[in-house]
Amino acid sequence: MNFVIQVIEPKGILDGTKTVEFQYQIDQNIESGAHIILVDFQNVTFMDSSGLGALVKALKTVNAADVKLFLCSLNDQIKMLFELTSMDLYFSICANREEFEKQLPKL
């Protein structure tokens, strides 16, 4: 089966000013028929609690739509935020895109 994979690449600071746009991108990808959404954090320099809240909301949205959500390329600050809040237990996190692509045959 061919999966439809969509990639979202936020840039800069993922905070309250960007959460509406981020949620819109998630909704658009689901509506366009995505089976898997990858959020690549390679160009994100900082994320605050509202950015984390947007990710939690996105996770609920994709789970309700039976879509898989993956995150990759988290910097140390974002990794620490996930670990301190134990959110790393709820998200599928890959070190980078290569690791994500290695997991695809298993899905």
Summarize this structure briefly.
Helix content is 42%, strand content 22%. By secondary structure, the chain is α/β, with parallel strands linked by helices.
Task: Furnish the topology, listing elements before pairings.
Blueprint: E1 5-8, E2 12-14, H1 19-31, E3 36-40, E4 44-47, H2 49-64, E5 68-72, H3 76-84, E6 92-94, H4 97-103
Parallel strand pairs: 1-3, 2-4, 3-5, 5-6
Helix pairs in contact: 1-2
Description:
- There is one protein chain.
- By secondary structure, this protein is of the alpha/beta class.
- The chain has one domain (5-106): STAS domain (Transcription Regulator spoIIAA).
- The chain has helices at 19-31, 49-64, 76-84, 97-103; strands spanning 5-8, 12-14, 36-40, 44-47, 68-72, 92-94.
- It has a 4-stranded parallel beta sheet with strand order 1-3-5-6. A two-stranded parallel sheet has the order 2-4.
- β5, α3 (76-84) and β6 form a beta-alpha-beta unit.
- It is globular and about 35 Å long.
CATH level 1 name: Alpha Beta
Rounded to an integer, what's the Rg over CA atoms? 13 Å
Mean pLDDT value: 95
- Number of separate structural domains: 1
Distance between the termini: 10 Å
- Total helices: the number is 4
What series of H and E elements makes up the topology?
EEHEEHEHEH
Strand fraction: 15-25%
The CATH homology group name: STAS domain
Could you name the key traits of this structure?
alpha/beta, four-stranded parallel beta sheet, two-stranded parallel sheet, Transcription Regulator spoIIAA, 4 helices, 6 strands, 107 residues
